[in-house]
Design goal:
The protein has 120 residues and is α+β, with helices and mostly antiparallel strands. The chain is 31% helix and 40% strand. 25% of the residues are buried.
Length: 120
């Protein structure tokens, strides 16, 4: 596995732990729909929360959340719609981003709630 894939997996693991500590109930992880993947699907306060996890090392040129472009958002929204329809979920949906920045053995997590508005 390449180094950036390992970084991403570690970031997703840390994001799940972080969200669980905040009271989120993890429903699913790495759910795929066509070319899109939903990193974390959680339930929190009667909402379904789709969480995009972005991990970078300290030397990256952009903040992790900046990598969630408009086209990426559209793919996430379509995948979330498919997930919600497939599972028959009748809850309000929200889209969050968790960024994880690694600095050698340490890391920093930022949770951005309602990071973007669904656009199809």
């Amino acid at each position: 596995m390449s180094a950036h894939n390992e970084l991403g997996k570690k970031g997703e693991e840390l994001a799940r732990i972080f969200l669980k500590k905040k009271g989120y109930k993890i429903k699913d992880c790495n759910w795929r729909f066509r070319k899109a993947e939903l990193d974390i699907i959680a339930e929190y306060k009667k909402q379904i929360v789709i969480v995009e996890v972005k991990s970078r090392n300290i030397y990256a040129f952009e903040r992790p959340q900046d990598a969630v472009t408009l086209s990426k958002q559209k793919r996430i929204v379509k995948a979330a719609d498919a997930y919600i329809q497939e599972r028959g979920i009748d809850l309000e949906c929200r889209f969050d981003i968790v960024s994880v920045i690694f600095n050698q053995k340490e890391y920093e997590i930022e949770h951005i709630e309602d990071a973007f508005i669904p656009i199809l």
